[in-house]
Model the fold of this input.
Amino acid sequence: MKATDLRGILEYSARFRDKIFVLNVDSEVLAADNFHNLLLDISVLRSLNIKIVLVHGASHQIRILSQEMNVPASDMGGMGITDEPTLRLAILAANRLAHEILEGLSDTDQRAVVSNAIIAHPAGILNGVDQQWTGQVERVDGDFLKRLLEAGIIPVISPLGFDGNGKTYRVNSDGVALEVSEALKAEKLMFLSTSNGLRSAGKLSAQFSVEECRNFLRDHRSALPPEMTSKLEHGIRACENGVSRVHIIDGRQDEALLTEIFSSEGIGTMIHANEYVAIRSAKKKDAGVIQDLIRESVATQQLLPRTRKEIARDIADFYVFEIDNTVVGCVGLKLYRDATPSAAELECLFVSDAHANQGIGRKLMLFVEDRARSLGCKQLLALSTQAFNYFQQKGGFREATPDMLPHERRLKYDQSGRNSKILLKDLS
Ligand SMILES: CC(C)(COP(=O)(O)OP(=O)(O)OC[C@H]1O[C@@H](n2cnc3c(N)ncnc32)[C@H](O)[C@@H]1OP(=O)(O)O)[C@@H](O)C(=O)NCCC(=O)NCCS
Done:
């Protein structure tokens, strides 16, 4: 490990101190080789005073027990009907798993308890079919869990719910994790699954706003495995009800949990409540950040060189794209008062490599376009040496000629010798 990694973690530790993370660990992850490492990673989080609630699934172990004991299970995935023999398998599997988790947490010096904080009632009759011992979470005993967390204890929560009459029901762990996150106003709900986030056309979809995630589900539902659909649906609900971020990562992968939490680019898919990703006006203190951000692109002649002083002088023209309080992109909008028709230039559009291909460039482009329109501009210009196809293909610009530049800009263009391509978009 590099000493600089520790500095990186410091940046997050103040932000996450005393915050609650709900980890929902899939049953396959509990059976994987990496599980011991995962428990060590939980110890790292606890050492930073992050409060952890561990919710776990049991379907993988129910499947194994069903074969070993030759007892057919009425449902394997935790989303269907639970008959009495399957409930007995579920209780056996959940208790064994909880015990293994307690053993592992003891091995890493963590205090933990298995609780009965999930209050459930029967799911009842759905579409005319009795769901038998499948339960629905009625409420979470949040006070009880909070007291455990205050005492530095990790609550371990099995996919079982209890009613007020001493009966047990099998409940879906994604649903339990959601209810627990809401009840505790968790900072993060993290699904440690067997899939490293969501892929669309082979590419990782690293970040979704709630709105984008909802649209994605609408368009791709039939192609997604039911486990992923469940995580996305529960993730959306969590974000709508006060959880800031939901993450889906592969819990079998070494270091996945820590990488997702302690790096701004993460490793899996994150769904964020809408306030999380934001474009905001740049402030004076961002001048140095913007200069550092675009340094590489200036060196490769993609962007015009700008000193820190120049950026600070023109800071009112700049907007930045922030993720997790880190600036990952920027754009400028310069108005040309001498132009007829009235025009503005989109300048200094940049997105860091770690966040490329996530639509951030397009969002910045659209933002500036809307802004120019609202300021009464009829044309938006952009000058580019290496991204002219981008502006045409992704931004709807067309190629223009230098004589279409406003007078003041034309002079600078001729002096620079950069010979950039000129792109234009009519704003209606
Ligand atoms: C151009 C830039 C802003 C794109 O940002 P981004 O957030 O990665 O872009 P988006 O996610 O909105 O779009 C990604 C798409 O654009 C394409 N793209 C990215 N850069 C491109 C370029 N220079 N030329 C053509 N297409 C490009 C990607 O291949 C991807 O295509 P796909 O959607 O078909 O897979 C970024 O690459 C950058 O900062 N470049 C260096 C600075 C620069 O040239 N700025 C423009 C001058 S002002």
The longest strand covers residues 326-336. The radius of gyration is 26 Å.
